[in-house]
Amino acid sequence: MPDRDGSAAFTRTRDAWERFAAGDEVPADVPLSIALSWLRCRDLHRLDPLAPVHAPARDDAVYRREHASVFTMLGAVAAGIAGRHDGCVAAVTDGDGRVLASWAARGSGGSAAAPGSVWAEARAGTNGAGTALAHPRAVCVRGPEHWSSALHDRSCVSTAVCDPVLGTAVAALTVSTRGRCLPVRPDDLLLATGPALRVLCDAAARSSAVLAGAFVDLDRRERRPLIALDGGGRVVAANAAACQRGLLPRSDGGRALGRAVAPALVRACGDDTWSGTVVVGAAGGAEPLAFRLRPVPGDAGPVGFLAVADRTGSVTDDVLPAPPPAAGGVAPDRVAAVGRGGRLHLLACDDVRHARADGHDVWLVTDLGVLRAAHRGIDRLARELAPAGFLRVHRGHLVNTARVRTVHRGPDGMTVGTDRAGAERIPVSRRAVPAVRAALGL
């Protein structure tokens, strides 16, 4: 691609793209978000960077009422951007990367994205909308930062709008140009999409109020364990009877109920009279409990579920198998970390002894030193590394059980030590002690 803006940065990026597409282990000289996207495109999605972009049309989505409002608001923003800036295309996509509508400004050559075409990263490689949706954030993809060489003459900026309850992307607003400087910045799109995000937050607040009211009303009449779960499967309330049985948000039983919410939502949509049963284990080896899930209806389908404990012998309605934890998949070979100067490192899982959280950042204690994990959030890292033998031993600590060599019990509780020379003790919460004992065969 000719460097029309005369920028040496484009030349460096194109050289980095060529090296990585040819087989380099780690992409260098590109932003971290682009490097991670290239890794996904090559190693996970197996996309050919030289193949034409294939964005097949689809028209099989069903949206909630508040989502339609978000799409309308983003459409007004996109039309305004196209009307104010020549040479650009502004588009609105749904959470799957499907183009809902696009506007081609004067001087853009009329190259508006076809409605219905899907620009998800798994199909089209690194691109504004697809990459913003893959890990919801505001992103800028310039020229050769695109994975597909067919898009190297374009630049785009995009931001995703996420559901505050489910945490998933609902839509994306993207502005792209061909061989031109971008007319807007990521921060501009973040500000412009603020009202659309408030629509989702307001809807979430109304749903929470409905769910809380239903929980309080039923708790007055029930003395059995009762738990309220939102649409994302999170435990948002539990009565005293549930707490006494150890059915807390981070307990195995609470997680099992949360995993059952997704299939329950599918079965309860359009049928407010539906109820289902999930059998979960209680803490301390107590007798398993059968929870009856009752949907709490809202304006556009269930806003959550109330789970009421029954005896296992009283199960008579639709029985939902509790899905296995998401982490029960194939063990990852490597974990991405960031070193000095923002350089990306791909570490073998065996090289990581443990990880500790510092706010949303996660620091990996490795044989190469302490490095920051490329992705934020220890919850997410714990899910990804669980198949590789990593165990969450504390709210802020994750340990590689294969590297544990010592276990110490003291007045302040249990700690574990790794095979590193010198004192390196990781605290173990009381709740995690049984899991640690089981993992270490104690």
From TrEMBL:
SMART domains, A to Z: LytTR
Ranges of residues in domain HTH LytTR-type: 378-442
Pfam families named in the record: LytTR
Transmembrane segments: none
The entry's keywords: DNA-binding
GO molecular function: DNA binding
Keyword Endoplasmic reticulum attributed: no
InterPro entries given in the database record: GAF-like_dom_sf, LytTR_DNA-bd_dom
Source superkingdom: Bacteria
Protein name per the record: LytTR family transcriptional regulator DNA-binding domain-containing protein
